[in-house]
Amino acid sequence: MTSAPALEVERVSHAFGARKALDDVSLVAPSGAFTALLGQNGAGKTTLFSLVTRLYQNASGAIRVEGFDVRRTPSQALARLGVVFQARTLDLELTVMQNLQYHAALHGIGGREARGRARALLERFGLADRAGERVRSLSGGQMRRVEIARALLHGPSLLLLDEPTVGLDIGSRRALLAETRRLIAEDGVGVLWATHLVDEIEAADGVVALHQGRVAFSGDVAGLKAQGGADDVGAAFLALVEPGASRGHAA
Ligand SMILES: Nc1ncnc2c1ncn2[C@@H]1O[C@H](COP(=O)(O)OP(=O)(O)OP(=O)(O)O)[C@@H](O)[C@H]1O
Q1: pTM of the predicted model as reported, rounded to 2 decimal places
Q2: Which of 19, 92, 202, 248 has minimal CB crowding within 10 Å?
Q3: Reduced to 3 states, what is the DSSP secondary structure of residue 168?
C-alpha cells in the first residue's frame, strides 16, 4: 500500500496554439474519495484528462498517479489508472464480454483470468445476464456501466470519468453515481468525476472548480459554499466564477 494520493496534479499548464486551455492547475484527488471536477463547457476538464492519460504530453508541471509520474514512469502510472471518456468507446458489434476481454488483453490479462474478472465486474454492475449480447442492444446507462467495468478490469486505484452521465435519464444518472460511490466505499479507489451538473455533488465530496483553465476553488463542499457566499453549490460556484451573476446553477 502507498500513502500517495490517487492523483496529484502540480502546476500543469497546457496550450493549443495561442489558446491556454489549462493555466497553472494544481489539484489532488485522494484515494477512497469522490472528487468532483466541476466546470462549465470549455473549462479545461477534458484537456486535463487527456494529460493524465498521456493522450497529450504535459507541457509543464507534474502529474502523478499514486505517486508515479506519468512522464517519467508512464507504465506504472497507467497501470494504476482507469478511464471512462466522454465519448463512448465500446465496439457496438462485439458482445459485452468480447469488449471486456479485448481491453483486458491490452493490459496483458488473458484467457480465463480475463473472463473471471469480467464476469465478477458484470455481476457487480447488474449486467451478468447481458455478457453474451452485442453492446448495440444495451441502453445508454448499461453501456456506461460496461465502460466503468472495463476501466476497472486491471484493478486501478484511480478512476477518471469525463462527464459520464451526459445523455442519461435521471434514474440512470442516479444509479451510475450510486454505483461509483459504492466502488469507492468497497474498493477504496479514488474517483475524479468531471461534471458541469452541481446536483451530482454530495456534501462529503471534494470539489475542484475549474474555470477558463484555472482552478477557481479547491476544497470541500462547505468551503465552496462559504467562499462563494451561498448556501447551494450552484450559486456558490457561479459566485466564484462569474461574480456578476447572483443566482442560478452551473448547469
Ligand atoms: N484539440 C484542441 N485544439 C484546440 N483547442 C482545443 C482542443 N481541445 C480543447 N481545446 C480548447 O481548450 C479549452 C478547454 O477545452 P476542454 O475540452 O478541455 O473543456 P471541457 O471543460 O472538457 O469542456 P466540455 O464540458 O465542453 O467538454 C477550450 O477553449 C477548447 O476550445
Answers
A1: 0.92
A2: 19
A3: coil
